[in-house]
Design brief:
single chain, about 350 residues, alpha/beta, 5-stranded mixed beta sheet, two-stranded antiparallel sheet, about 55% helix
């Protein structure tokens, strides 16, 4: 069975943080039925890192430790140790058992350890760890949920938002090495997301995860972006890219605040429009800077200021693309200087080698 080469750990971590309840409902419905979700839940990230320090450095799995309350009406609460495992691991049961024991010793509370198996090996299904010697026996069993067992057609019709997350991941697994097929699946899932009518917060997170799982090569990504532009023209989506999405939310909040200060409906509308535009521009500027720092490390303030001088959203999107593929920081700055010196160049998209 081919081993994965794409990092899916980060999107899984974000998926659990934003969709914990629907995740438990889809994967472990018996556990979901025991929990009083109206009382909320708490991620115990600091405690988890102290107890499981290797979970920060290993890239084959994602761990979450969550405090939840049961429905029995008492103050009893349990801990859920939830793990997403994306590759078969010979000593998986032993490791899960060790983590379970560490958590129980620290909190002295009931612990439910559950594993979501996100690998593509149908025969790998670890569910216990046990040993016996000289009359001493230990047996530890834990529930698992195998994502590849799911019916994708059922996921497409499910009202559970986490079903769309799982569907994006499964389609990403299925289309490894076949980017053209992935493009078709990504377009279909994007249309499905647009048709669902989720509120803005949910839609934004789902779109982010879909985009994260189903990455496309440069040429096909441009085809996908064109599809998104068509959806926007149809009024279907207002969250075209991960950069624009975050910027729009910031701009919306700023616009609302400006509108409230003015105290008039007209002021509110004007504040919203200004906030959206300003937020999008600032978000794209920060996206360019973030791309550069992610690839080349800390960049000096002078270069950051140059990026922030670019006022065209179209030019900023081009710079995002350039920052992702340019071979050196010096080459990026050279192209940026040309852009700033020639306003007519703002709408021209640099290609992958930094040439126009």
């Amino acid at each position: 069975m081919a081993r994965r080469t794409v990092d899916y750990d980060s999107p899984w971590k974000e998926a659990l943080e934003h969709f914990l309840e629907p995740c438990i409902a889809l994967c472990f419905p018996d556990l979901h039925a025991l929990i009083d979700w109206s009382r909320g839940f708490t991620f115990l990230e600091n405690e988890l890192q102290r107890l499981l320090p290797d979970s920060r450095t290993r890239r084959q799995f994602v761990d979450k430790l969550v405090q939840v309350y049961l429905k029995d009406g008492s103050e009893q609460w349990i801990l859920i140790h939830l793990e997403v495992q994306a590759q078969p691991e010979t000593e998986f049961g032993e490791r899960v058992f060790a983590y379970h024991v560490r958590i129980w010793i620290h909190f002295r509370r009931p612990v439910v350890t559950a594993a979501i198996l996100a690998d593509d090996d149908p025969n790998w299904r670890p569910q216990e760890y046990r040993y016996e010697l000289a009359g001493c026996e230990v047996r530890f069993r834990f529930p698992i949920f195998k994502l590849i067992d799911l019916d994708e057609s059922a996921l497409e019709t499910s009202s559970n938002p986490f079903a769309l997350v799982v569907l994006a991941y499964l389609r990403a697994l299925r289309t490894r090495g076949t980017p053209e097929l992935r493009l078709g699946d990504k377009i279909r899932l994007t249309r499905l997301l647009a048709d669902r009518g989720y509120n803005t917060d949910v839609a934004v997170q789902l779109f982010r995860l879909l985009d994260w799982f189903m990455k496309l090569p440069e040429g096909l990504e441009e085809v996908y972006q064109q599809y998104l532009r068509e959806l926007r023209e149809e009024g279907q989506v207002g969250y075209l890219t991960s950069f624009e999405r975050a910027a729009i939310l910031r701009g919306l909040q700023q616009g609302l605040e400006e509108g409230r200060e003015q105290g008039l409906q007209q002021g509110l509308q004007q504040g919203l429009q200004q906030g959206l535009q300003q937020g999008l521009q600032q978000g794209l500027q920060e996206a360019v800077i973030g791309f550069l720092e992610g690839r080349f490390g800390q960049i000096d303030e002078s270069l950051q200021q140059k990026v922030r001088q670019v006022g065209s959203n179209e030019a900023l999107r081009a710079l995002c693309h350039l920052a992702a593929v340019v071979e050196s920081l010096a080459s990026f700055e050279e192209q940026l200087n040309r852009l700033l010196q020639s306003p007519s160049a703002e709408s021209r998209m640099p290609d992958s080698d930094g040439q126009r």
